[in-house]
Write a structure and sequence with these properties.
2 domains; mainly alpha; Growth Hormone, Chain: A; single chain
Length: 459
């Protein structure tokens, strides 16, 4: 660890932070643009949700496999390829001629996003000493929230004045800048599992299980959705059996069996993102349809949550270097629960001040949860599993985000059916929103206990 130069550490922090900003900026800015995209392509709310969900699904499928590949072949290498592919796929998305092609290119973006997500935290843990991990992970998480912050605001401005395609064009510029910085400044490579074989069979089973689970969940309550979920459960059981009997598994089951901190920290992350991710999607639609706000104005309201997250994440990260992560993260989950509970009272005439207050509560809670939880996961495993641990945590995040969108998609299908959101259906949309927030509140409340159950981190 001491052989890593000061310049290398700072450059690694810079490129991973910029990478985190880039991917999160894209995720949040596209939410504000969805109503405009829906009008341009004349698509219903269900198809519209797939523009967000397709990215999450593909990223979740490949996170753990790419984390394992990075451990074997090099974290810097996979991260670099990920940035290059993300930049290229952003360009393709910017010129998509139809909703279907847009979704296809979003899948490609998700695959490249998985290469970035699965290596960023692992690279930081590889170059920084343990006593600084909470601080640098806090900075990295803060960059995620800075991306989420500027996404709705800048995305709203770009959508209103230059069209939604300009969002992807800006991502191309940012991606090129990161690639130049990496090739010119970042030295060294980090490979802790060199020489071990990659588990292709396990990765295929894993991808099939996750695809069927998330696709099936979003297809409920249809028979097809039920069949897909049943098939997913079968694949999960097959995956566990395969991984326990292969020499170099893509996901070592012992990480879960013998490590309560790792297990429950990941479960808590899954619950947290399942309960919070779709909040921006719902509130963005509410503000632009029911409050008739422009994309720019909606972005200004939505920015309150991620700004709060960006401000407090570094502080929470530093605190987790001194205080047990379970204490800070669990308190954060409780604060988030309060914010979600307040949103269950949303109605047609709710004031913008009330909505902003709710978003600030949620943002503060997530900030207190995320950095300490990431620190707990990454500090609970040996070096050779940093990529897998980072990929697993990223999978929990993206699977949770996809679940969150799946819950909303299911509720919209039940309350509204396949219709565009018009004044005729505003009451049904409001019913859908309330149902979603009730479910999210209950999920987050359960997450408090999952967070507390992890036990203490042995430093």
């Amino acid at each position: 660890m001491d052989k890593v130069s000061f310049a290398t550490r700072n450059t690694a922090l810079a490129v991973t932070t910029l990478g985190s900003f880039l991917t999160s900026f894209m995720g949040s800015s596209i939410n504000v643009a969805l109503p405009v995209i829906g009008k341009e392509f004349a698509i219903d709310a269900i198809v519209l949700s797939w523009i967000a969900t397709s990215y999450l699904l593909s990223a979740a499928m490949f996170l753990v496999p790419f984390g394992r590949i990075a451990d074997i072949y090099g974290r810097k290498k996979i991260f670099t390829y990920g940035i290059i592919l993300y930049t290229f796929s952003s360009f393709l998305t910017a010129i998509a001629p139809s909703a279907f092609i847009l979704i296809v290119f979003r899948v490609l973006q998700g695959i490249s996003g998985a290469m970035i997500f699965s290596t960023g935290s692992a690279m930081l843990i590889s170059v920084f000493p343990q006593k600084q991990r909470g601080r640098v992970l806090g900075i990295n998480v803060s960059a995620v929230y800075m991306g989420l912050s500027t996404g709705p605001f800048l995305g709203g401005i770009l959508t209103q004045h230059a069209g939604w395609r300009s969002i992807f064009a800006l991502s191309v510029v940012l991606g090129i800048a990161i690639v130049i910085l990496m090739y010119s400044k970042l030295e060294g490579e980090w490979v802790e599992a060199r020489g071990e074989t990659f588990d292709f069979t396990g990765s295929l089973i894993y991808a099939a299980a996750l695809t069927m689970l998330l696709f099936g969940f979003s297809s409920l309550p249809s028979v097809f959705g039920i069949i897909m979920i049943a098939g997913s459960i079968g694949c999960i059981l097959l995956f566990i059996k395969w991984e326990m009997n292969t020499r170099h598994p893509v996901l070592d089951m012992n990480l879960f069996r013998n490590n309560t901190v790792f297990t429950f920290s990941n479960v808590a992350a899954l619950i947290n993102y399942s309960a919070t991710f779709a909040v921006t999607f719902i509130v963005s639609l509410y503000l632009q349809y029911m409050k008739a706000l422009s994309p720019q104005s909606a972005g200004i309201v939505l920015i309150s949550q991620p700004v709060t997250m960006a401000l407090f994440s570094p502080l929470a990260g530093r605190m987790s270097d001194k205080i047990q992560p379970q204490v800070i993260a669990s308190f954060g989950m409780a604060v988030t629960t309060i914010g979600l509970l307040l949103l269950t009272f949303l109605h047609a005439h709710t004031s913008l001040l009330f909505i902003i207050t709710c978003l600030i509560f949620i943002g503060f809670g997530i900030a207190l949860f995320s950095s300490p939880n990431t620190n707990a996961v990454m500090s609970s495993v040996p070096k050779k599993y940093y990529g897998v641990a980072s990929g697993t945590l990223g999978t929990m995040r993206l699977t949770g985000q996809a679940f969150s969108m799946g819950i909303v998609t299911l509720i919209l299908a039940l309350h509204m059916g396949r219709v565009q959101i018009t004044p005729l259906y505003f009451d049904r949309f409001l019913q859908s929103s309330k149902s979603a927030f009730v479910i999210f509140t209950l999920l987050c409340f359960a997450g408090i206990f999952a967070s507390l159950a992890r036990g203490k981190l042995h430093r």
